Amino acid sequence: MAHAIHWERNEDPVGIWEHRGKVVLAGRGHSKNTDRRWDGVSMDKTLGAYVIEAARAAMDDAGISPEDIDGIVTSAGGQTNHASLGSQWGPDRPFFDPPYDTEDGLTFVTAEWLRKTMNLPNVKYLNSHGATLWNLIGLAAQVVGDGRCEVCLVPYPNGNIEGRYHQNPTLDAPGATQWTYPYGWGLSGQGYVFEQYARKYGTNHDRLAPFIVQEHNNGLLWPYSYYAQHEPEPFTEEDYLNGRWIAQNLSIFDCDRPVQAGACYIITTAERAKDMKQKPVYILDHTESEFAPRSLVETLNDTEEWTSTQARRSYAGSGLRPEDIDVFAPYDGFAVFTQYFLEAFGWRGVKRGEAHDFYAGDISLKGPNPINSGGGNMGTGRMRTVFITDPMEQLQGRAGERQVAIKAEVAVTIGVLPFRAAALAFSSVPD
């Protein structure tokens, strides 16, 4: 059964996580295909079908059987509060035969649906209330650490169906949202904050180009990347600079591309992982944050304060210092997010306003500063799962062509939004 738990580590001082090094990532799996969207016809390409495929791959990767799974923790729609990453069905939604006779398995995937559809007989703990990927991994790690289950299947669905992507269906705009909802401020607001950043630090949009190009290059080396499967052509700085504007100071190449795919992870205890196939990746910490702007909309001051708070919280919870981090994977759903997280965490000594100078240096995979070695969302599509899979594989030494040349023993990843983020710290050793 599912249990209500207060699990987030979002109040200072957080202290070192009580399960530090006792919980591990033991397996990962992905659907073989990453599609632009579901076609509404192919039942072997539904969100549920892709999650099942990923779950089987994750179990095989860890060397376990379905009978070993005793817990499932999922983010049903890939977002907070069950919201789906992709569009919702319209009023003329067709109906299909079981197990696709409800929304479950099509636009979201619950733990209950997965247990029933995959016939997982020994699952005793179910939780479908995870949020974004980083929060989901943190929740599952806490569940295992607290002993609610021992071998946890952690699916993450990434859905996208036909229709206008994320069209706001609400008919009201209460409170302060009356000044933002009607005007599409969610996207424009990111351009607004970036404009403040550019003015404050004397930089401009074009200086993002080396970072975006490198992410695309990295992503082409990940077999599950949308671009590796569908658009394998090299992406150039000229391509980036010629991208059409979506909002002032944000081009189409600063926005991740929605896709349809599934991923799954196995999280278990360090003791149980001794019997599994892969080298364990130890979870050192999870911390979370949520903030509200001082006024009606987010400003650069807000963004920098929030990300700095999250960075301090992560360091306090994990016991790490900036110089301890080898592999750093900050989120890039909008490309400008990465610079805020990078500067907050001070990776490689980068301070406020210095991210674009850092991008102009050697950030290649085989160089000294391989940020987002998996390619991020910009290089793989809006799956987000590369932010877990790539650090995991880097620490295990099985990233293939993406394997960084630097030491890869400690990794930190953070996402999604500056105002609502979670950070995870991983290590190749428990201490």
Write a concise keyword list for the protein shown above:
11 strands, nine-stranded mixed beta sheet, Peroxisomal Thiolase, Chain A, domain 1
- Overall morphology: globular
Output the number of helix runs.
13
Name the quaternary structure. Answer: single chain
Elements, N to C (H/E): EHEHEHEHHHHEEEHEHEHHHHEE
Alpha-carbon distance between the termini?
A: 33 Å
Helicity range? 25-40%
CATH architecture of the domain at 23-163 and 258-281: 3-Layer(aba) Sandwich
DSSP strand (E) fraction? 15-25%
The class by helix and strand makeup works out as alpha/beta
The CATH first-level class of the domain at 23-163 and 258-281 comes to Alpha Beta
Largest sheet, in brief, is: 9 strands, mixed
Radius of gyration: 20 Å
Can you describe what's shown?
The protein has 431 residues and is α/β, with parallel strands linked by helices. It has a domain at 23-163 and 258-281: Peroxisomal Thiolase, Chain A, domain 1, CATH 3.40.47. 30% of the residues lie in helices and 15% in strands. It is built from 13 helices and eleven strands. The strands form two sheets. Strands 3-2-4-7-1-8-11-10-9 form a nine-stranded mixed β-sheet, with helices on both faces. The chain has a two-stranded antiparallel sheet with strand order 5-6. Strand 2 (71-73), helix 2 (111-118) and strand 3 form a beta-alpha-beta unit. It is globular and about 60 Å long. The relative contact order is 0.18. The mean pLDDT is 93.
